Known about the structure:
This protein is of the alpha/beta class. The protein has three domains: 3-119, Methylthiotransferase, N-terminal domain (Rossmann fold, 3-Layer(aba) Sandwich), CATH 3.40.50.12160; 143-372, tm_1862 like domain (pyruvate-formate lyase- activating enzyme); 376-423, no CATH class. It has 13 helices and 18 strands. It has a five-stranded parallel β-sheet, with helices on both faces. A five-stranded mixed β-barrel has the order 14-15-16-18-17. A three-stranded parallel β-sheet has the order 6-9-10, with helices on both faces. The longest helix has 26 residues, at 348-373. The two termini are 40 Å apart.
Amino acid sequence: xxxxxxxxxxxxxxxxxxxxxxxxxxxxxxxxxxxxxxxxxxxxxxxxxxxxxxxxxxxxxxxxxxxxxxxxxxxxxxxxxxxxxxxxxxxxxxxxxxxxxxxxxxxxxxxxxxxxxxxxxxxxxxxxxxxxxxxxxxxxxxxxxxxxxxxxxxxxxxxxxxxxxxxxxxxxxxxxxxxxxxxxxxxxxxxxxxxxxxxxxxxxxxxxxxxxxxxxxxxxxxxxxxxxxxxxxxxxxxxxxxxxxxxxxxxxxxxxxxxxxxxxxxxxxxxxxxxxxxxxxxxxxxxxxxxxxxxxxxxxxxxxxxxxxxxxxxxxxxxxxxxxxxxxxxxxxxxxxxxxxxxxxxxxxxxxxxxxxxxxxxxxxxxxxxxxxxxxxxxxxxxxxxxxxxxxxxxxxxxxxxxxxxxxxxxxxxxxxxxxxxxxxxxxx
Length: 429
């Protein structure tokens, strides 16, 4: 058997799992399961541990290797699990040499030496980022991811991710353009730019280009690209070029996911965020003037330490103030070693109740946007034989169309979760 990769967490991890699979297989690793873990919450770490135990029961002869953010920040915890054969660091996982070393260690005739079980270096010492030109995305799949940035220079008080990812570093623009062009030539209709802190892109590169300049270069030099999408951004760092591209190039999809985290100014300060509530509202209004049909998503944390009911109400109000369509709700998770872990904590029951109310607000916001779309004609990227996505990332129920196609459909209704497109007016784009 070959190498199976089980992915937890973000879109960046999804991209990196493709690199891991390629590098591990090229190194000759066989009958192995790689867990690419996430550390953003305690629940994410627990899910990885549960998956490890389950997979070992199902495949007792398979070697289990753990990597990703949780492996970087809690390497010894995973190494102490009897089911785990090796722990590989977050930088090492992207390098063929680490998988060659893993193959050698796992093939040792007398078992795995305990001193060789952990292969995790200091992530803060990593200063450069090599591009990974993947040709491993299956042809015909609707979208492909391109990693343009990794790490984060900011230190939000709740976040463990900089200690799992290291400081911010970027892929040079030319290498990104080459990657996008190669993926488009393979037939991918949509490219998604991914990173840990996308709007910090380029600060470490010569000339310090920004994300807006990168998107402009991609769209200029890869004219065959049908759709370019940006994953989560920090709105306070959005540059003028990015706003201009949003305004004047329809191939950049009208959907932005914002790292807002809270709607209360005091909580934002205690989180060590760099924007205020009004900054978030003003940004959404500014972008909506440039692209009136744009859809916004946002990350919001429920129950951050010291959050009162009045403070939470301002986060709840932000859904309407910013006219959000998609909400990604995080019940606050206490991460050891972070400043927020030392602050007065909100009771678990209150955290869960606030998260429930935020999710309900998100569901209502999505339903309102779906209702507003009825009657509109949209270009829908077919993801599977059952679902596609509009330019605004709204899900559309379809039946039997080939994944990877972009079809023009008129929205005839919705079920509260997905739009319904009329097959009678579709045309291949």
